[in-house]
Structures are given as C-alpha cells and as structure tokens.
Amino acid sequence: MEQPLLAFNDKGIYCAQADVYLDPWKPVKKAIISHGHADHSRWGHSKYITHHSNIPIIKHRLGEINATGKEWNETFLVNGVKFSLHPAGHILGSSQIRAEYKGEVWVFTGDYKTEDDGVAVPYEPVKCDTFITECTFGLPAFKWMPQNQVFDDINSWWQQNREDDRTSILFGYSLGKAQRLLKHLDSSIGKIYTHGAIENMTAVTRQLIDFPETTLITRETKKEEIRGNIVLAPPSAHGSPWIRKMVPYVTASASGWMTFRGARRRRAIDKGFVLSDHCDWQGLLTSIKETGCEKVICTHGYTDIFSRYLREQGYDARTEETQYEGETGQLESENEKESA
Fold first, then answer.
1. Model-level pTM?
2. Alpha-carbon gap, residue 45 to 30, rounded angstroms
3. What span, in angstroms and rounded, lies between the C-alpha atoms of 327 and 325?
4. CATH topology of domain 7-141+277-332
5. Which of 133, 156, 241, 251 is the most buried (most CB within 10 A)?
C-alpha cells in the first residue's frame, strides 16, 4: 500500500518524503509550525519553519530557537514536496499548511476560524484533496453570534460594572483571545489593566497590530486605581492571591465553552461571553466544502461525532489521535503563570 503524503505517528504529523513534521508534539529535526499556542508549538525541535509574524511569538514562549519565517503563499520545496502557508484566521501568525507532491494536495489547518476578528489575517480557503481539520466545536449546538454583538455586550457589561463602582475582570488566554478582546474594548469607558502574562504577550504583538493603551498591574498598583476599570487576565489567575486586590469585582470569561451554562458554573464565573477563536459547527462545514476535498481527517475536538456526520454527507472522513487540545489546550505556559 502506498504511503500517504502525511501520516500520523507518535511524534506528530509526518511527511516522509520531505522528512518534515507538522506541529509535532515530540522533538524532531525539522518542524513546520502552524501557530504559537503551546499545544502546537513545542520546545525541542532542531529547526522551526513558520509564518514570519509567528516568529517573535514562539521565541517569546520558547526562547532563542532556530526559526525561519515564510510569507503567505510562498512556496518552499523540501525534497520535491511543495509547502506553503496560508492564513488560518485563528490568532496572529496562524497558518494553514499546504503540502503538494506529484499532484496530490493536503492541507493541515492547525486551528482556524472563519470570522475576521480584526487582529489575525482572515482565513482563506485552500483547495485540496485531503483536509486535516480540528473540530473543537464540532457540534450543532455551537453557533457563534457576530462578534460585534458580543463586544457590544462586553462593553455594556463593563459600563454597568463601572456605574456600580465594581472592577470588571475578563478572562482570556494570553495569546490570541486577550489581543482580540483588547482590540475591541471601548477604552472611552475607562482604563484597561493587564495581568503580567497578557501584558508581556501583547508587548510582543504590538509590533504587528495597533492596540489600545494598557496598564500593567504591579505590586504598587492600588486597589482604588483599578476600581471601575477593566482587567484582562489569563484563566490561570482566577482564584489566585493576585486577584484579591481587585475587590469588589465581577468576573467574566470569553470562550466558546460559555455556550453551556454548566461551564460557567464549574469555573465559578459571574458572566460568560460566547467568543471563540475556533470555527463553530457551520464554519467547519462551510470551510470543508470550500476546499473541494474528498477526504477529511478530524484531529481534535468532537472527532467521532463530526466525522460520522461528514461520512453521512458523502465525505471519506476519519479521525486521528493527536496531542492538540483546541480551546482547552491553550493553557498558559509555566513562565506566564507569574503574578504581576
């Protein structure tokens, strides 16, 4: 049996012809990296290839690595295999990875979303024969509202808390979600304060995007200064000693999981805003259709349910085990859990 262009093994997604891995989870000689989240860009590879805008992000997280940057749609050959990177719309610097050999085309999405968030380069469909897709939110229950409605709700929530003389604490992952929130917060309401992890990551991404002004919370920051304003913090800060200086405060989380009320209760969050950097059910289906693919491989999320539905629609769909974790896997790395 002829070996597929891309195969899954215990290290990651492997292209044997090129001797290259895509988003490997164990150290390898050469890795093409889709984006900077910790479950997709790991430490220990000898050489990293990624979009040039992702290089400062992964260097911030991983240190001085051997990294080469590519432009969108730039073709680079590795032992006869044509690779190129295409916008995934997930977070800043996020790419789909296209691989072509002897007329056969595969696309690996990494993580992606189809709504233009005003921060990441918007997703572009790429024609292919085989499409490797996440399905983090691969259930019909997940249906996102337009983000302008969500941000109207977030800013109204902040305004009401300010009128009630309470601090608004909004939780979001330090890479991706935090910058999206920051870009759309209405700074006319008050000041935007940040946890150290978010401030540090945003400082890295300011070279790419114009963000509103933020103020880092330090040990010298007085509770009275913060009151009535908004604080952006990573989920790891919830329940930590760091948060006590915000009293009286109201908490909220921005996540696709806020679709389910039980998720908010389990996390002891006062308010949930449904805002995800991944596709919803319809976004996944539309993206797959636009590729014109015949084969679909589902890698993380509701893989069994989603692949079964795709087979019912006529696709040759299957699942593969990976160590990608979607929105549950964008945890703060150890050096980002610091208190500010």
1. 0.94
2. 6
3. 6
4. Metallo-beta-lactamase; Chain A (3.60.15)
5. 133
- Condensed to tens digits (0 to 9), the pLDDT of residues 173-227 reads 999 999 999 999 999 999 999 999 999 999 999 989 999 999 999 999 998 999 9
pLDDT in tens, 9-54: 999 999 999 999 999 999 999 999 999 999 999 999 999 999 999 9
As a CATH number, domain 147-273 is 3.40.50.10890
- Is residue 129 classed as helix, strand or coil in its secondary structure? coil
Q: Give the DSSP per-residue string, 241-284.
A: GGGGGG-SEEEEEESGGGGSHHHHHHTT-SEEE---SS--HHHH
- 289 and 283 Cβ atoms separated by less than 8 Å: no
What end-to-end distance do the CA atoms of the chain give, in Å? 56
The domains of the chain are located at 7-141+277-332, 147-273
Assign 69 to helix, strand or coil: strand
CA 280 – CA 138 distance, rounded (Å):
7
Whether the per-residue pLDDT at 339 is higher than 70: the answer is no
What DSSP assignment string belongs to 137-180?
A: T-STT--PPPHHHHHHHHHHHHHHHHHTT-EEEEE--TTTHHHH
Count Cβ neighbours within 10 Å for each residue of 20-37 and write b for 16 or more, e otherwise.
bbbbbbeebebbbbbbbb
User: Over the stretch 79-88, which tens digit does the pLDDT of each residue have?
Assistant: 999 999 999 9
Q: At 76, which helix (H) or strand (E)?
A: strand 76-78
On the 0-12 / 13-18 / 19+ scale of CB atoms within 10 A, 271 is middle
In sequence order, which residues have a C-beta less than 8 Å from that of residue 244 and are 6 or more positions away? none
